[in-house]
Structure formats: C-alpha cells, structure tokens
Design goal:
The structure is a single chain. By secondary structure, the protein is α/β, with parallel strands linked by helices. Among the domains are: 140 residues, 3-Layer(aba) Sandwich (Rossmann fold); 148 residues, NAD(P)-binding Rossmann-like Domain (Rossmann fold, 3-Layer(aba) Sandwich). It is built from 13 helices and twelve strands. A seven-stranded mixed beta sheet has the order 9-8-7-6-10-11-12, with helices on both faces. The chain has a five-stranded mixed beta sheet with strand order 1-2-4-3-5. A hairpin with a 2-residue loop joins strand 7 and strand 8. Helix 1 runs parallel beside helix 3, helix 1 crosses helix 13 and helix 12 packs across helix 13. The two termini are 24 Å apart. Bound molecules: nicotinamide-adenine-dinucleotide. Nicotinamide-adenine-dinucleotide (NAD) binds next to helix 7 and strand 7.
C-alpha cells in the first residue's frame, strides 16, 4: 500500500510529534536500557502489515459513497493483535501504525498475551445516520474479515465507535463465518458476550495507579488532593473511585471549564460526559476554573483525562502537582516530560495507568472463549490484581535502573517483546 514509513527517526524531538514518531522514539529510548538484539529492535520499528480497504456505502438518499478503511497490525509475537477501530476524518495509515505500536507496548507492560493493532475509517461519524453507520460497519467487517478473528486480531471501540458498533461488527463477521464468534471483538454489550465493568475499567486502573503512586510517595490518600481534567468515562470513574477511597477531589472539568472547591467536590453529584454531555459547569461550586489553570493547581495528584498534548514545554514549569497520572492517551509531550522529570514530578504513563481498558478487554475475550460470564465484582478483583502486578514490575524497574516511570514501563514492555522475539527467532 501507499503509506510511507520513513526510516529516519528524528534525532531532535519536533514540537508536534506524530503518533508514529512518538512510538519509535520511545522504542529507541527503551532500547538503550534493554539487552535485546538490534535486529529485533529494527523489526519492531515496522508494522507487520497495514491493510487498506475501500468501503462502499449506500447512503440513505440512495447515492453511493466510498470511504477508506485501515487496519494496522504492529506485532503479534506474544499473541493476537489487539486494538481499537476509530471512525474519524483525521484517520491515516501512519496514525494507525503509531497507535498500533502503542498498543503493543501497553499489552506487554500489562503482560497480556496480545500484540498491538489499530484501525479505522476516514469518516466523520456525525455525518452518518445510525443506519448508515451500521451498513458501513458491516461492510468494513467484511472487507477486513480475513485479517481479524479471535486468535488473529481483535478490534475494540475507539473514537467514534462504541458497543453498538462492535455488536454490528461481531454479527457481520459471525454471519459470514457461519457461527457465532463473540471473541472477534471486545467492548460489546454484555448480552452478547461483552464484559461487565469494561466501561469503567480505564478510570478504575487510573485510580488504582494513582493510589499506589501516593502510597509509594508516603502520601496518605485521605490527606491527598486531586484535580481531574476531563469528566468522561476515564476522568469521572477515576475521580469517583479516588473520592470513595478518601481523597479530596478539589477540581474537575469538561471541555467548557471546571469546578473548584478546596474542601472537596461531591464527584458523584457532578454528571459525567455520558450522564449529561458537558454538564459540569451547570453544577454549583464555590469557584470555577479554566482548564489551563486546573492543570497548574497546587494539588498532590493531577489526572489529565481529556485529550492529548495538554502538558507541554510551555506549562510544564508551572505544574505544581507531585504526581501526574495520565488518564488520557499522550497528555504529556516529550518536551514536558523531560522538564517534569528534572523537577522530580512523578509521571505515571498512559500505557500503564489507563491500561485497565485493554485488560478488561482481555477478560472479555477469555469469557467469550470459555462461554462463561464473570460478575462485575470478579472483573474488578481481577483488574486490581493485574494492575498491582504491572505496578510492581514497573516499580522494580524504576528502582533498579533509576529511570522515570515512563521509561520503566517501556523497558518492562520491550524486555518482554524483545525476549519473545529472540526466543522465537526469525523465520525462515
Ligand atoms: P469521553 O468522551 O467519555 O470524555 C471526555 C471528557 O473530556 C469530556 O468531559 C469532555 O468534555 C472533556 N474534554 C474534551 N476536550 C477537552 C479539552 N480540550 N479540555 C478539557 N476537557 C475536555 O472520553 P474518555 O473515554 O473518557 O477518554 C478520555 C481520554 O482517555 C482520551 O484521551 C482517550 O483516548 C483516553 N482513553 C480512553 C479509554 C476508554 O476506554 N474510554 C481508554 C484508554 C484511554
């Protein structure tokens, strides 16, 4: 296919890295700490394959439009490819490759038996009726049917897609294969093999990592103050759990701005994005605050859980939190990362902190294969133990190699992938 993956890793970090540049830089940095054959590192710089398909759609008005879809599969040395499908006008092959590499690291740091993938369709889902979205999804499932499967590549929801999209995908795939195969996707509704607790999982893992980071820094959770940017699936679930566990959540926000109360907000009374879209500012609170000022509050723990690239070279010096837990994907730019590291701010990376989502996807896949559903309580308990195990592995690396939490997470991931590749060797 036409995508150009250049061989030139940037030596200097550009102001705005692409997802692929970020993924390759992080691979390069981790490789300096890990004793892995350079040939293995070279192989990991490239995806196994990127599939590009045309997805024709009959619009509701009878006209036909053709959309472009991608599935990037980065690496499957540890198990089937795993990653989301996004419907967004900015989807590109290169972005899918970069994000598929992130998924490889995320699955490996969690020690899940999966590799990394990402895909999507170049489309604005808001321009589609529900019926059009269903037809587009079913045709996309057919176009990439040879590439996916429960032991091959397992898509999941991402930007612009949801449980309903996964239900259509699973149905289309199953109809063509001639049998019901729930394990082809995760993030489905529980009635057709989805897992309880999947929706709250990334927020729960963020809360668990925040709690462990506080404990590591000898900070009693009942004395801790927390600010959360973004009150969606990730931010609201993380804020509410930390609130329940005794922390004082002093600020939360949505895209329009935030609420601020030094005595602590009632996080259960503030509507999350799915409960009432952009409903945060309609609530009563002693103070309101801008999203920029929220990031710079003098709190113990800051959780950016909205969008990427919010902590940059421009504001990193003004971040006053001692601990930053990345709820969103990529909220800290690489320039900001170095500044925070020099200043002694602990940044718990996205590939660990929000990995509860893919971890419960793994539980969903296990439930589908075994045809046996777990209770919500079991999911929460198993997630707790997977998160603590990954936390321990990353903490051990922080202490052994004297590196940042982010570097440690990448080192743990690369050790696992690199050793697996060395053990399997290069065929033929
Ligand atoms: P969501 O749509 O449920 O909520 C997003 C929230 O952020 C909303 O409250 C919205 O108003 C707010 N927001 C949007 N733009 C903002 C801005 N510029 N400044 C401040 N607030 C803003 O989204 P989500 O599922 O919670 O995802 C949030 C982040 O977490 C994204 O980066 C996503 O990629 C990442 N993430 C999500 C999952 C998941 O399964 N939901 C898993 C891992 C990572």
């Amino acid at each position: 296919m036409a995508m150009q993956v250049t061989d030139d890793d940037p030596v200097e970090e550009p102001a705005h890295e692409s997802a692929l540049e970020t993924a390759r830089r992080q691979l390069r940095e981790a490789a300096t700490h890990v004793d892995v054959d350079p040939g293995v590192i070279e192989r990991l710089r490239h995806p196994t394959r990127v599939v590009e398909v045309s997805v024709p759609l009959k619009r509701d008005d009878g006209t036909v439009e053709v959309f472009t879809g991608y599935r990037a599969q980065h690496d499957d040395v540890r198990g089937p490819y795993k990653g989301g499908l996004r419907y967004h006008p900015d989807v590109t092959a290169e972005e899918c490759v970069g994000l598929s590499m992130w998924m490889t690291w995320k699955c490996a740091v969690m020690d899940l038996p999966f590799g990394g993938a990402k895909g999507g369709i170049v489309v604005n889902p808001k321009d589609l009726s529900t019926e059009e979205k269903e037809r587009l999804t079913r045709r996309f499932a057919e176009e990439i049917r040879d590439e996916v499967g429960p032991s091959q590549d397992i898509p999941a929801p991402d930007m612009g897609t949801d449980a309903k999209t996964m239900a259509w995908f699973m149905d289309a795939y199953s109809m063509q294969q001639g049998e019901t195969i729930p394990g082809v996707v995760t993030g489905k509704p529980p009635i057709i093999g989805g897992s309880y607790g999947r929706e709250e999982a990334p927020g729960r893992s963020v809360a668990i990592i925040a709690r462990e980071a506080m404990r590591y820094h000898d900070l009693d959770i009942s004395d801790a103050t927390v600010a959360v940017q973004g009150f969606g699936s990730v931010g609201a679930n993380a804020a509410r759990l930390l609130d329940d566990w005794g922390a004082t959540v002093v600020a939360v926000s949505d895209v329009n701005g935030g609420l601020y109360d030094t005595t602590g907000l009632d996080t259960h009374a503030v509507p999350s994005h799915s409960e009432e879209a952009e409903g945060v500012m309609a609530q009563d609170a002693p103070n309101t605050i801008t999203n920029e000022a929220l990031l710079e509050l003098d709190v113990d723990v800051l959780i950016p859980a909205a969008v990427g690239n919010v902590i940059t070279r421009d504001n990193a010096d003004r971040i006053q939190a001692d601990i930053v837990v990345e709820g969103a994907n990529g909220p800290t730019t690489s320039g900001a990362d170095s500044i925070l590291d020099e200043r002694g701010v602990a940044v718990l990376p996205d590939i660990l902190a929000n990995a509860g989502g893919v971890t419960v996807s793994y539980f969903e896949w296990l439930q589908d294969i075994n045809r046996r559903q777990w209770s919500e309580e079991r999911v929460a308990n198993e997630l707790e133990s997977e998160m603590l195990s990954a936390w321990d592995d990353v903490r051990a690396e922080v202490e052994a190699a004297d590196v940042s939490w982010r570097d440690a997470a990448y080192i743990v991931a690369l050790e696992r992938i690199g050793k697996a590749k060395e053990a399997r060797g290069l065929w033929p």
